[in-house]
């Protein structure tokens, strides 16, 4: 493509308020974060439980680096699979109550890998219209027929399933949707999948660690298991405060993924210090429920504050740590985000194509490091009273 054409495309993004700019972080992530040297209240992080900077997590990574070195040195099927990788797989399978788990280097790679391993041409890939881009891209690389239904609409999803009961169908939905913070009725989804011969897959990146009495995510809150949801996936880059991803399923499904997923076979395994840090994070998630309990308290406090100060119509209340403030236009979202930044609060303006047109928003994320007075300040700034 002509460079001038590329330049024109970039200028159009700026004109349409769709140009993205990276923010340079110059500190650890916590209640406060330094952006380009300026200390700001942090409503912009997926580190929901504050584990990215936990001393025990950092020490575990340091100790593992001393023992194993840093790089894993190869793919999992070559030299990259260590006893610690195996230990984390066993620990996650036990935590999630699934027979087996396999690790990936990133959530994006996990989603591509699952689809590529299980789907072939002429299969159907059923998806919620607001699924993460990685799931949409996963459909494209398989050659399977992508069928999308309106957000959370189980009746429309079931209509897709009914069209050909004999065809193999993989049905994927997010557990907690990353931009909306809401969830599908997985009871209904599981029943529909069973009735119409579909394999149900829940990607619960934003739920596991945060939701449920045991922190097992959206399935925990709905008392569902691997019987109803045969495939569960997620990332360690959110509540665990580390990086990488996992897929939990039956032994047969996991072995199929190991043998067939190109993003597993041909990708360097996670560094051992990351694995060790994640094992420590998992231990903290299991033994310190106060972290997710505090998030629940902050969610309630935030929603009551929004109701008190007239923000309820703009706010999209959810049961998760993701609490969107809907502003519709790109310009409105950009202006409100810039104003909050002036007030010393960092949060993201979300615009198309991440969300549909006219559904721009601020993506407010709550974490266990925040306090009630931080939410008081956020609400006053949202109503312009600062």
Please state the overall shape, judged from the principal axes of the Cα atoms.
globular
Number of helices: 14
* CATH architecture label name of the largest domain: 3-Layer(aba) Sandwich
**Fourth-tier CATH superfamily name of the largest domain:** Type I PLP-dependent aspartate aminotransferase-like (Major domain)
Under CATH at level 1, the class of the largest domain stands as Alpha Beta
Care to count the β-strands?
Answer: 13
* Portion in strands: 15-25%
> Main beta sheet, described?
7 strands, mixed
Please mark out the parts with pLDDT under 50 across 5 or more consecutive residues, or reply none.
none
Account of the 3D structure:
With 386 residues, the protein is of the alpha/beta class. The protein has two domains: 22-48 and 289-382, Aspartate Aminotransferase, domain 1; 55-287, Type I PLP-dependent aspartate aminotransferase-like (Major domain) (Aspartate Aminotransferase, domain 2), CATH 3.40.640.10. 41% of the residues lie in helices and 17% in strands. The protein has helices at residues 3-15, 55-68, 83-96, 107-118, 133-142, 154-162, 186-195, 218-221, 251-260, 262-265, 272-287, 290-308, 330-342, 372-382; strands spanning 32-35, 38-42, 100-104, 124-128, 145-149, 169-174, 198-203, 231-235, 245-249, 322-328, 345-346, 348-350, 360-365. The strands form three sheets. It has a seven-stranded mixed beta sheet with strand order 3-9-8-7-6-4-5, with helices on both faces. α3 (83-96) runs parallel beside α11, α6 (154-162) packs parallel to α7 and α12 runs parallel beside α14 (372-382). The model has no long low-confidence stretch (mean pLDDT 95).
């Amino acid at each position: 493509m002509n460079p001038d054409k590329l330049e024109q495309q970039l200028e159009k993004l700026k004109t349409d308020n769709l140009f993205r700019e990276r923010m340079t972080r110059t500190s650890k992530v916590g209640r406060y974060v330094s952006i380009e040297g300026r200390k700001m209240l942090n409503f912009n992080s997926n580190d929901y439980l504050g584990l990215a900077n936990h001393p025990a997590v950092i020490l575990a990574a340091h100790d593992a680096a001393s023992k194993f070195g840093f790089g894993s040195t190869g793919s999992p099927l070559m030299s990259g699979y260590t006893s610690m990788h195996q230990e984390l797989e066993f620990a996650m399978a036990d935590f999630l109550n699934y027979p087996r788990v396999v690790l990936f280097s990133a959530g994006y790679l996990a989603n591509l890998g699952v689809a590529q391993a299980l789907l072939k041409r002429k299969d159907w890939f059923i998806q919620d219209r607001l699924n993460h881009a990685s799931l949409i891209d996963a459909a494209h690389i398989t050659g399977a027929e992508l069928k999308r239904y309106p957000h959370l609409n189980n009746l429309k999803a079931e209509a897709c399933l009914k069209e050909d009961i004999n065809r193999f169908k993989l049905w994927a939905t997010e557990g907690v949707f990353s931009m909306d913070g809401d969830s599908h009725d997985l009871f209904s989804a599981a029943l529909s999948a069973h009735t119409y011969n579909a394999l149900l897959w829940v990607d619960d990146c934003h739920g596991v660690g945060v939701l449920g009495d045991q922190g097992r995510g959206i399935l925990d809150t709905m008392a569902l298991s691997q019987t109803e949801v045969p495939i569960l996936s997620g990332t360690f880059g959110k509540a665990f405060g580390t990086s990488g991803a996992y897929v939990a399923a039956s032994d047969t499904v996991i072995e199929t993924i190991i043998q067939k997923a190109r993003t597993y076979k041909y990708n360097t395994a996670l560094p051992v210090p990351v694995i060790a840090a994640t094992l420590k994070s998992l231990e903290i998630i299991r033994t310190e429920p106060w972290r997710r309990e505090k998030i629940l308290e902050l969610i309630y406090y935030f929603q009551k504050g929004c109701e008190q100060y007239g923000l309820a119509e703009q706010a999209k209340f959810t049961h998760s740590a993701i609490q969107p403030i809907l502003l519709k236009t790109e310009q409105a979202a950009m202006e409100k985000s810039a104003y909050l930044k002036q007030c010393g609060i960092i949060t993201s303006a979300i615009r198309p194509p991440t969300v549909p047109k006219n559904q721009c928003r601020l993506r407010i994320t709550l974490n266990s490091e925040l306090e009630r007075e931080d939410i008081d300040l956020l609400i006053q700034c949202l109503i312009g009273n600062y």
